[in-house]
Specification:
By secondary structure, the chain is α/β, with parallel strands linked by helices. It has two domains: 144 residues, CBS-domain; 154 residues, Heat Shock Protein 90 (2-Layer Sandwich), CATH 3.30.565. 48% of the residues lie in helices and 18% in strands.
Length: 400
C-alpha cells in the first residue's frame, strides 16, 4: 500500500496525539480543592474530629510553624480510637497524623500528581504555591476523574478516526476492485483484437500485413497496462530509480509518436506536432516516453473520429520544459479536473470510466513519474473552441 494513502490517517493521529499531550499538561491547580481545612499539630484528636464533622470532609492538613507538616484523616482517627478507646480524644494530632508529608505544587500536571500518589501509595496531596504556602488539596478521586474524562474524550475521537478511515479503506478497496475489473476488461478486449487478427491472418495469409498494426497496438496496450500496474506502487513508495540522461526531445518523442500513430489510424485521428524539437532535456527517457504515450493513448481514445490531437513542446522560464497533449473530445467538468490524477479515480462519479475513455491508473502513473522528476502536471478543459481537454506536464532543467 502506497505511503500517500496514509496521509489523512497520519493527520488525524497527529491531532489525537496533540489532544493527548494537552491532557497530560492539565495542571493540578485547575482541579484541586482550594477550601482546605487546617488544624494545629498541638490540637487534640477530639478537636480535629469536630472539624471533620463540621465541614463534612475526610481529612485535615496539619500545620506546624505555619507550614504543612502532615495529614490527619478519618482513618487515622479510627485507628487511634481502636488503639485507645478511652483516651484517644485527648491525644495530640501530631501523634496520629500521617507523615512525612508528600506534596505537589500548582505547576504540576495531573499525570505527575497521579504518579506521586502511586509512588507513595497515598490518596491525597496538599498543593503548595511557589512560595511554599498551602494553596489547596487534591485527592486520588479528583485526579482519576479528570483522567477518566480526558480518556473518554480521547476514546470518542479515536473511534471517530477509526470509523472514518475504515470507511475510506472500504471505498479504496471498492475503487481498487473497479480498477482491476476495468484493467482485466481492457486486457480481454486487446486479446480479442489479437484473436480476430490471427483469424484474419489464417483466412487470408496474403493480407496478413494489413492487420499487423492492430496486433502491434493490442500488444502495446497490454504491455503498458501491466507495466503501469507494477510501477505505480514503486513510484509511490520511492523504490523506482530515476535514471537521468541528456536526450533530445525529437529523439525521445518520435518513436512514441510512431506508436501513437498506429493507435490513431483506425479512427482517422491526425497527430499535430508543434513547438521545439531539437531542445535537449535532462530526464529519465523511459519514464518520459511512457508519460507521453499514456497521454497520447488517452487523447486518441476520447478524440472524435477524423479529428486532431496536438503535441506541443516548448522551453520555458528557468530552462524548464513543457509538453502539452490536447484533444477535441468531451469537456471535463471543472470539479473533476483536480481529481483526475488520483489513484483509483477517473473522471469522478459523474463520468463513467468508459464515457471518459481510457483508464484512470495511467494518469496516476503520469503524475507520479512527473513528480519523481520534480515537475508538475495538470489538466485543463475546455481546450480549444470550447471543447476538448489538454494535459500539460513540466520538467525542471535539473531534476532531483
Amino acid at each position: 500500500m502506497g505511503l500517500r494513502r496514509y496521509a489523512n490517517v497520519a493527520e488525524d493521529l497527529r491531532t489525537l496525539e496533540a489532544e493527548t499531550e494537552y491532557a497530560a499538561s492539565i495542571r493540578v491547580a485547575e482541579h484541586m480543592s482550594a477550601n482546605v481545612q487546617c488544624v494545629p499539630a498541638t490540637a487534640t484528636l477530639h478537636q480535629a474530629t469536630r472539624l471533620l464533622v463540621q465541614h463534612g470532609i475526610s481529612c485535615l492538613v496539619v500545620v506546624e510553624d505555619d507550614h504543612p507538616a502532615g495529614i490527619v484523616s478519618e482513618r487515622d482517627v479510627v485507628r487511634e480510637v481502636a488503639r485507645d478507646p478511652h483516651g484517644w480524644a485527648e491525644r495530640s494530632v501530631r501523634d496520629a497524623m500521617t507523615h512525612p508529608l508528600h506534596v505537589t505544587d500548582t505547576g504540576a500536571t495531573v499525570a505527575q500528581a497521579i504518579g506521586e500518589l502511586a509512588r507513595h501509595r497515598i490518596r491525597r496531596l496538599p498543593v503548595l504555591t511557589t512560595e511554599g504556602r498551602l494553596a489547596g488539596i487534591v485527592t486520588q478521586t479528583d485526579l482519576l476523574r479528570v483522567a477518566h474524562r480526558r480518556l473518554a474524550a480521547y476514546a470518542v475521537d479515536l473511534e471517530r478516526v477509526v470509523s472514518a478511515r475504515t470507511a475510506e479503506l472500504r471505498d479504496l478497496e471498492r475503487r481498487r476492485d473497479d480498477l482491476v475489473d476495468l484493467t482485466v476488461h481492457d486486457i480481454k478486449n486487446s486479446l480479442c483484437v489479437v484473436e480476430s487478427a490471427l483469424d484474419s491472418m489464417e483466412q487470408d495469409p496474403v493480407g496478413a500485413i494489413a492487420v499487423l498494426p492492430l496486433l502491434r497496438r493490442a500488444n502495446l496496450r497490454i504491455g503498458n497496462l501491466v507495466a503501469t500496474l507494477l510501477d505505480v506502487n514503486r513510484l509511490e513508495n520511492g523504490s523506482l530509480p530515476l535514471r537521468l540522461q541528456d536526450v533530445s526531445w525529437s529523439v525521445l518523442c518520435e518513436p512514441v509518436l510512431a506508436e501513437a500513430g498506429l493507435m490513431a489510424q483506425p479512427k482517422g485521428v491526425a497527430l499535430n506536432r508543434s513547438g521545439e524539437s531539437q531542445a535537449v532535456l535532462r530526464c529519465d527517457p523511459n519514464l518520459v516516453e511512457r508519460i507521453l504515450l499514456n497521454l497520447l493513448d488517452n487523447a486518441i481514445a476520447v478524440a472524435p473520429d477524423e479529428s486532431v490531437v496536438d503535441i506541443h513542446a516548448e522551453r520555458q522560464a528557468e530552462a524548464s520544459f513543457l509538453v502539452r497533449v490536447g484533444n477535441r473530445g468531451r469537456v471535463i467538468p471543472a470539479d473533476v479536473l483536480p481529481t483526475l490524477f488520483r489513484k483509483y479515480r477517473q473522471g469522478g462519479e459523474q463520468l463513467s470510466l468508459k464515457r471518459f475513455g481510457g483508464w484512470g491508473l495511467g494518469l496516476t502513473f503520469c503524475r507520479l513519474a512527473v513528480e519523481r522528476h520534480g515537475g508538475t502536471i495538470r489538466a485543463r478543459s475546455p481546450y480549444v473552441d470550447g471543447e476538448g481537454a489538454a494535459f500539460e506536464f513540466t520538467l525542471p532543467a535539473d531534476p532531483r
